[in-house]
Amino acid sequence: MKWKHSISGSALLISAFIIVACSSGAVKATSPVLTSEMNLAGPPASLTPGLSPTNTDIEITPTQTRTPHPTNAPTRASTPTATENLWTSIALPDWVDDRNTPVLLGVYGTYPDFYDAPSNPMALWNGQTGEHFDINVPDGIGYYWLPDGSAFGLLSKDLTMAWEVNLASGLVTTFDVPASSVEFVPTSYDGLIPLKALSIPGQTGYSYRPGWDSVSPDGRFVVESKDDHDILVYDLYLGKTFNLAASNNQLFNIMASWSPVEPYLAVLRSDVEVGPYYSTEGPANWSIAIYNVLNRQLLAIYDDMFWVNWSPDGTKFLYQRPSPLVWARTICVFDRLTGVSKCFEGPKIKHKANTSDEITFSSLRWLPDSRSFSYLYYTSDRSNQNVKAGICFLTIEDGSERCILEQIDQYGGVIGEGPFTVRYYWPSPDWKVLLFEIDTACDLCDFYENPRLGFVDMQTGQSIMLDAYMEIYQTLWGP
Predict the structure, then answer these.
(1) Quick one: which of 23, 64, 239, 415 is 20 to 30 A from 123 by CA?
(2) Would 289 be classed as within a structural domain?
(3) Which domain does 45 fall in, by range?
(4) What is the dihedral of CA 92, 93, 97, 99, to 10 degrees?
């Protein structure tokens, strides 16, 4: 089984913990102490920035070796090659190359025809105005942005060619793609998919990976998994795959998260098999394991934790306290530098008071300043009535928060069995704009009823609804 994904992510729960030394040399947590602010006796030395881990107890077993990409890979042609259905240039609108304008690249259509259409158009979307520019693309398999945001590209259906469109000039460059660059692109996928273009030092061109792959911030490592008990990491530079998990590991590895500033990988684990939305048939013991991927060492193990979301500066991470009741989970922040975990009861009390029984938190994300974070809340009673939801932003220092998109009757009123509520959101890299999705279906429902998309301005809270449907996680914001 592959890494499990949950769009809702509403099972984001992690507990507070007390750090003690383990006989293996790793750091382990004992039973949680559920107070609003807990001193954890300082961070483990191996997780303190600037210190080199010394633990060497982890077993490393190379499981696969690939030949590194050749250094004489074909270079990009300065002039487009004559090819059927080839672009030569595109007259792009001015806002596409305006670096102050958040630009979204994606395939769109209408719901529910989006899933049955033989093909859907691709377009660039202006996150500030909602306007879009259709791109009449050749038959392709995947689309991507260059890392510097100067161009977007498209891979041909047969994976032998790529087209790249320069945003400043609109000129299209065509070049051949070596097979080694596209070995991870799923050719069996029906339709266009988002891709990541990863550069390899000393080599020409890119290695293309599916957009859902978990890639390290420096683009060197990619998390893979053959089954639940492996933690397979592919080294793009060396062309090798290694297993971080010990050969006798019986825990189920559910999800991985990279530190933004260090070669650290956090892996969510459970002692029982996990189903959709991180559900289990019985009680589960959750833990987080932290690895240094560069030297392949286990640094720490934290018990009673579910999910980890690193802050942009790498000094903190978000989690939630574990609870068998979805609506009883509290959002917490662990500070690696001080060893203090700070939990926030305010959001739970505030939002729960608006309705009656149930509340879930999902989509926990850090803002760029590492001092505040966002979350999506959803409340209802047990019959899924009296529904209320919104996207909120909370400042860690004083616990202050503001929420947007809580009142959305103006976007369609009541359709079906309930009102429209926010289900997902997707921020632009600078957090000026959020792409969001609303629906009349519940937040944990695995189906749609009346999905609609829109952009909302982070500063003003003003929103624009789109007359189109897109898979929100298959869209790509420009860097």
Answers:
(1) 415
(2) yes
(3) 1-55+247-326
(4) -160
Average pLDDT over residues 183-193: 80
d(CA 117, CA 464): 26
Copy the structure tokens of residue 474.
């298959």
**What CA–CA distance (Å, rounded) separates 141 from 404?**
36
Q: What is the mean pLDDT of residues 305-333?
A: 79
CB 402 within 8 A of CB 395: no
Per-residue CA distances from 187 to 37, 143, 473 (Å) = 50, 13, 19
DSSP strand E in 293-355: where? Answer: 297-303, 306-310, 316-320, 331-335, 340-344
Range in 2-6, 118-122, 399-403 with the lowest mean pLDDT: 2-6
DSSP 348: H
Q: Is residue 287 part of a domain?
A: yes
Residue with tokens 């068998």: 324
**CB of 478 within 8 A of CB of 98?**
no
Q: 477, exposed or middle or buried, with CB in 10 Å at 0-12, 13-18, 19+?
A: buried
CA–CA dist 226, 231 (Å, integer): 8
Q: Following CA atoms 225, 229, 11, 190 in sequence, which dihedral angle do they give, to the nearest 10 degrees? A: 30
Query: pLDDT at position 65, please?
Result: 36
Q: What is the largest CA-CA distance in the chain?
A: 68
CA distance 473 to 11: 18
pLDDT band per the 50, 70, 90 thresholds, residue 226: low
- Asked if residue 6 has pLDDT above 70, the reply is no
d(CA 272, CA 70): 43
Task: Write down the pTM of the prediction.
Answer: 0.75
Lowest mean pLDDT among 12-26, 99-113, 132-146, 373-387: 12-26
In the chain, the number of structural domains is: 1
Phi, psi of 147 (to 5 degrees): -55, -30
Higher-pLDDT residue of 167 and 138 is 167
Q: What is the pLDDT of residue 39?
A: 34
Q: Is residue 274 part of a domain?
A: yes
Q: Which of 10, 13, 48, 12 is nearest to 32 (CA)?
A: 13
Cα 425 to Cα 104: distance, rounded to the nearest angstrom: 13
Cβ atoms of 215 and 209 within 8 Å: the answer is: yes
For 350-394, what is each residue's pLDDT tens digit? 666 555 566 778 888 999 999 999 998 887 765 555 677 888 999
Q: Is residue 180 part of a domain?
A: no
